[in-house]
Design a protein that fits this description.
Helix content is about 35%, strand content about 20%. It is α+β, with helices and mostly antiparallel strands.
């Protein structure tokens, strides 16, 4: 598995932790050690293994990630990715600016700075903690850190244990962790936008955040905001899709990835290949293919086999950082087939949380058998209780009756003199909890698993994660996101022909009015669920990008078999109730919709660290 890990204080045990970074078996690796420090790296790009790079006489630097530019005293300058490696680029910036250079970096990265003269080791993270990195320090033991949280438990000094309250909150809050906490006892996320330094003589650790998100909306018209967004997104794409390199784009039938096509010029499109994976050539796939043809880019459809999720459950939990469920590493099953054809993969990850209302509580209307429709109006966001109610689901049946995820979530969000402490990170107000809480750290949201899985094979990034776009998001009134499809309007602004292609979720051209899409989405969803307009070849197949998971669980036996194979684990874990597990499964088989709860449970059971915990390390 691609990433970085290290042991600070001694050099022993690094090989055990580094073994947890192996994923494809084709990574390039690097290992450094002296008497007080060991760093190991595993990289999908071979030249990245030429680390550490020396800075001056006494400093060593490691960087894993993507860096696209630097914002300094002379303004923002984009990086020419063909001119030098990421670590050479960062080493040059360190020479000129010192350790504070990280505050100006635009990208997603984690780095290690070893200053031998000052006898310090610093771990640096990007603004949003997109390369999530974790640490644990056993009593009287070394500090162990890794970008793969499960690999920490491989170190001989670490005895892994679940924090029963936090793992219950993980299971009861849509399978995500919050802030700097994790479900593993004594194990924490390095803060986003931070420099965490360890003094080697004393072992003391201090963290300084060089950037924290603040929500400061500027009052302006939607048209004015859209102009700025479309122009800035076009700039980001022009800077990142550089001549002479081949890019793969995960293209859906929706708007988000289509915006990448709309923003790319003719030369960039010539070096793009669009990839789409579904179980059959459904409405989603046809819309994606038409968008690719309209943009003039090559289109590759990859058929997802009926055992795709079964195979994903066997493999993907080993990659999990407790963010999302096993099937959300959507491309892991096929990206290995295409990594030799492209230099980097592009996704539209985080468009939903950065430029739509998916992270905000919208008003809804229950129409009984017709379902629930969401209205283009927001519920209040001015109390901590509103945040807790939004994020804490009804607890799954399999949680022990003594466990209350909602109460656990609330107990970890406290008002302080500095603001609202949300699992170790501070936000200025309840509204900022909503606006900034899913922005950073990115581990607060489940979609990180897709990008994380892509990175195991080749460089991968999303243009929606750019410092300038993040700043724009933080200055935009929330009403623009809930009353408009910002991304769809930007596609229309940049490429009207692409906007005329059908939007798979609604069956209408992307350029149709917001209200028409709102009606079309609910009507099409009802028709897919209750009418036989376009029957798929198998009941579990859908017209959307993913299978119909509830039917898939009823048709196939892999979930039941996973529960049976791990029933000993269930009985040993105090926060789980084995009878509740089977009740949840049987209720689903009888018609309830418990697919999310079941997928989250079997993900946890299949994680290697879970077995190590029950077996005593």
């Amino acid at each position: 598995m691609a990433g970085l890990c290290g042991v600070v204080g001694v050099a022993d045990g690094i090989e055990d932790v580094a073994a947890g970074l192996e994923w494809t078996g084709e990574e390039s690796t690097t290992l450094f050690r002296d008497e007080r420090l060991a760093i190991a790296g595993s990289f999908a790009v071979s030249e990245a293994a030429d680390q550490p790079v020396q800075v001056g006489e006494d400093t060593l630097l490691w960087i894993w990630g993507s860096v696209f530019g630097f914002d300094g005293d002379d303004g923002y300058q984009s990086r020419d990715v063909t001119a030098e490696s990421v670590f050479e680029y960062c080493a040059d910036l360190y020479e000129r600016h010192g350790p504070s250079f990280v505050s100006g970096l635009n990208g997603d990265f984690v780095g290690v700075i070893y200053d031998r003269r000052a006898e310090t080791v610093s771990i640096v993270t990007d603004r949003l903690a997109l390369r999530d990195t974790y640490y644990v320090q056993p009593e009287d033991g070394p500090l162990v850190f890794s970008t793969a949280i499960q690999s920490l438990s491989r170190h001989p000094a670490v005895t892994p244990r679940f924090d029963d309250r936090l793992v219950a909150a993980y299971l009861g809050c849509d399978f995500r962790t919050f802030g700097c906490t994790t479900p593993l006892e004594g194990t924490f996320l390095f803060p986003p936008g931070s420099i965490t330094s360890v003094d080697l003589p004393s072992g003391s650790m201090t963290a300084r955040q060089y950037w924290t998100p603040t929500y400061r909306p500027r009052e302006r018209s939607f048209s004015s905001f859209l102009d700025e967004f479309a122009e800035l997104f076009e700039t980001v794409i022009a800077e990142r899709l550089q001549p002479g390199r081949e890019y793969g784009l995960l293209l859906s039938g929706g708007a988000d990835s289509r915006l990448v096509l709309a923003a790319a010029d003719r030369q960039a499109r010539a070096n793009l290949t669009a990839y789409h994976c579904t179980g059959w050539m459904n409405r989603e796939a046809r819309a994606a293919e038409q968008a690719a043809l309209t943009a003039g880019v090559d289109f590759e459809w990859i058929q997802r086999g009926p055992d795709y999720h079964e195979r994903a459950l066997e493999r993907n939990p080993g990659l999990s950082n407790f963010v999302g469920t096993f099937e959300q590493a959507h491309a892991e099953g096929f990206v290995g087939e295409i990594r030799d054809d492209v230099d980097a993969m592009v996704t539209a990850s985080f468009a939903d949380s950065n430029f739509k209302a998916h992270s905000f509580p919208q008003r809804s209307l229950d129409l009984g058998p017709l379902g629930t429709v969401h209205l283009p109006r927001l519920e209040p966001m001015d109390r901590i209780e509103h945040f807790v109610e939004y994020w804490a689901d009804d607890p799954p049946r399999y949680l022990d009756a003594s466990v209350d995820p909602k109460a656990i979530l609330r107990s970890n969000i406290r008002e302080t003199d500095a603001g609202i402490d949300h699992h170790g990170l501070t936000y200025g107000s309840p509204e900022e909890l909503f606006v900034c809480g899913t922005l950073t750290p990115r581990t607060n949201g489940s979609v990180l698993f897709l990008l994380q899985s892509l990175r195991q094979h080749l460089p991968a990034w999303s243009p929606f994660v750019d410092n300038r776009l993040v700043d724009l998001y933080l200055s935009t009134p929330t009403r623009h996101f809930v009353r408009h499809n910002v991304v769809a309007r930007a596609v229309e602004r940049l490429d009207p022909d692409l906007a005329a292609v059908t939007y798979a979720n609604t069956g209408l051209p992307l350029s149709s009015p917001f209200w028409a899409h709102w009606i079309g989405e609910h009507c099409l969803g009802f028709a897919d669920e209750h009418l036989s307009i376009t029957d798929p070849p198998d009941p579990h197949l859908s017209n959307g990008p993913w299978p119909h998971n509830p039917r898939l669980i009823r048709e196939q036996s892999f979930v039941r078999e996973a529960i049976e194979a791990n029933e000993d684990l269930i009985r040993e874990l105090p926060f789980l109730d084995v009878e509740g597990v089977w009740e949840c499964y049987r209720a689903h088989m009888d018609g309830e919709r418990n697919d999310a709860e079941l997928y989250g449970l079997v993900t946890l059971l299949a994680m290697p660290v879970t077995r190590r915990i029950v077996d005593g390390g």
